[in-house]
Amino acid sequence: MLAAMIAPDLDLAADPAELTADLIDLESVSGGEGPIADAVEAALRRLPHLTVHRDGDAVVARTELGRDERVVLAGHLDTVPLPTVPGARGTVPSSWEEADGHRVLYGRGATDMKGGVAVQLALAAALTEPNRDVSYVFYDHEEVDAAASGLGRLQRNAPELLEADFAVLLEPTDGTVEGGCNGTMRFRITTTGRAAHSGRSWIGENAIHKQADVLARLSAYTPRTITVEGLDYREGLNATGIGGGVAGNVVPDTAHVEINYRFAPDKTPEEAVAHVREVFAGYELEFTDLSAAARPGLDRPAAAAFVAAVGQEPKPKYGWTDVARFSAMGVPAVNFGPGDALLAHTDDEHVSAEAVRECYRALAAWLTD
Amino acid sequence: MLAAMIAPDLDLAADPAELTADLIDLESVSGGEGPIADAVEAALRRLPHLTVHRDGDAVVARTELGRDERVVLAGHLDTVPLPTVPGARGTVPSSWEEADGHRVLYGRGATDMKGGVAVQLALAAALTEPNRDVSYVFYDHEEVDAAASGLGRLQRNAPELLEADFAVLLEPTDGTVEGGCNGTMRFRITTTGRAAHSGRSWIGENAIHKQADVLARLSAYTPRTITVEGLDYREGLNATGIGGGVAGNVVPDTAHVEINYRFAPDKTPEEAVAHVREVFAGYELEFTDLSAAARPGLDRPAAAAFVAAVGQEPKPKYGWTDVARFSAMGVPAVNFGPGDALLAHTDDEHVSAEAVRECYRALAAWLTD
After folding, report:
1. Of B124, B242, B292, B348, which is the most buried if we count CB atoms within 10 A?
2. Among A106-115, A192-201, B55-64, B271-280, which is the least confidently predicted range?
3. Using omega within 30 degrees of 0 as the cis cutoff, is the peptide bond preceding B338 cis?
């Protein structure tokens, strides 16, 4: 019974694909990261070339070689809940399948993102003298409300542990480099009028009719594609909700539209706000949400060397991810990890052994060449 | 105890204002019209110059004098529920108040419409030989769902009892003549698109944006004022509801707007439908509700004589009322009754004694001159 309380040994020298299976078997749905964090911490503390820090269920291990550059390799330890469908294979424990001579690993977190975490751990053990100082960052609570994020907590509690010239998040990108991310904001435009019985509508003023101009501006708007450091970011300006009306015989005195603007990393949040204020000049904009974009940072030497080592054309990232947290700290960041992001959170989440190994080889080459 | 089961005597020869008080004291919230219908029937059966019919809680009494013209005087016996606010005077029993030398009667139904019913009953008793044959129609279930209407039931069960050249509904109009009524229809226009994550909105097609054109047509539409038989009917075309949107990060694939068209009695329902199909050409219109307009019928001899007798400039009626039921049967109809319609259904519903008497005098003059 007591044995269950002791962190299991992780063999960081094993094939990173096998290590992925061991990590999946340490179930770690958000909020239950304690055992996996303990196992990761214990394994890293056995490595004399690393300095290890623990903050809640986050673990940071760093080389302290005095190199000119420092890079971060980051990944989250938590997963979404296990599938509830009987027979689903994206669960705990993991299972292997042989297909066309390839080995495929099924389990919760196979793609999102215990494959990436296994690569981090294998590199941490193997690279005793990397060409750049490396900070290996493992954190909790990524799959839940952003306010609970273990990475956000680390930023607040020990920002010095995250300082770097460049960061790689090992989120699943199927082996391609996805750089930076668009920012996102939400706002509401409310039109007002004067209520009346619809049988005497000339006494009133229809607030829904007044949305015609707002929708016309949305409809006429051509979203831009903006090139930042060689990557093309497509923007978007969309109504995501509209509402108004009281009853079938009432001229409504209020109507509203909810708008989402996804903006390229050429703009600060303030510049993005100025842009939508211009598009909707004459209206009051009520902002409900605003997250900064992140530049890909591909102009930094560490990033250029990374892209060369990976040997792949970088792509822009459209969704908002934790790279924006690094970007906000002044650390350019990209996503690069094993597995297909479309399989994340699915009932049959899986990753090929070869994808995990390829990711390991690419990063090892970058950090030793 | 048994006495309560017997219909109380109504003195139809009394001052119609006093008779109004007696009728108020016979509580008759919709669904509870039995006692008042019994009392009305009993009083009318005592009059040898009338033929009396009973259908449920509706009562029809007719002169059979073989006149060239027949007119209907109609009113409903039910009221909305009693007020629940302590101290409200628009309740049962009624109460009198003296103000500036005028007597004012408070009680549920004082305006809507026991004053009108009292006038009907007083005329029925007094006019033994009217210059036109008269059908006095009293009905139940007006203040509830239209499907329950006692007038509608009479139309189905005994349409011959309602046949006439002209009808007056004694609904409260403050002594003016309100002729005909606008028709009303409701329909929905749904726009569709293709759902997408708003971070990749170019993959989708925004259904809310497509409402821009629908709202632009509504906003640009100038409602007409159409003169029918000398009365000016103002039309209206209004969005009464709009909706769409799934979540703050989703390009919605469907949005809808609810539209209400109030149309003048120059148009049949079919013509009104054709008009909105033209306004919204290119869209599919989903109709949810359609009620015909009613012509005022002021070109009929009985109506012209009525207007002359009342000595007031007729006004158009904008809301939909039971005059439309008569109109649909080919009987032109107007509203003319004592009391201010704005007091109907209020906690302090009241009517002046003089208003009831004036209405009585105007109708008596028309039917005896």
Report:
1. B242
2. A192-201
3. no
Nearest alpha carbon to residue A123 among A107, A137, A142: A137
**Rounded Cα distance, B184 and A217, in Å:** 32
Q: Which residues contact B92 (CB under 8 A, 6 or more apart)?
A: B24, B25, B27, B82, B107, B108
Catalytic residue among B22, B57, B142, B253: B142
Q: Which residues of A touch B226 (CB under 8 A)?
A: none
- Write down the pLDDT at residue A3: 41
- Test B319 with A223 for CB contact under 8 angstroms: no
The DSSP code sequence of A203-252 is GSB-TTTTHHHHHHHHHH----EEEETTEEEE-EEEEEEEEE-S-TTEE-
Note if B78 is an active site residue. Answer: yes
Select from A211, A251, A262 the Cβ nearest to the Cβ of B199: A262
Which residue does chain A place closest to B225, by CA atoms? A202
- B225 interface with A at CB cutoff 8 Å: no
Q: Are strands B350-352 and B102-106 parallel, antiparallel or unpaired?
A: antiparallel
Summarised one tens digit per residue, pLDDT across range B35-69 is 999 999 999 999 999 999 999 999 999 999 999 99
> Which pair of tokens denotes residue B165?
């050249």
* Cβ-nearest to B238 among A213, A251, A257: A251
Q: Give yes or no for a contact between B161 and B329, defined as CB atoms under 8 angstroms apart.
A: no
Using a CB-CB cut-off of 8 Å, the residues of chain B touching A258 are 245, 248
Q: What pLDDT does residue B229 have? A: 86
Alpha-carbon gap: A234 to the closest alpha carbon of chain B (Å): 8
With tokens 């007044």, the residue in question is: A210
Structural domains of chain A in order of their starting residue, each with its CATH number? 2-181+294-368 (3.40.630.10), 183-291 (3.30.70.360)
pTM exceeds 0.95, yes or no: no
Distance CA A177, CA A194 (A): 54
**Helical (H) or strand (E) element with A323:** helix A323-328
Across residues A215-220, what is the average pLDDT? 97
- Cβ-based contacts of A223 with chain B (< 8 Å): 201-202
Interface confidence: ipTM more than 0.90 = no
Q: Looking at chain A, how many residues does it have?
A: 369
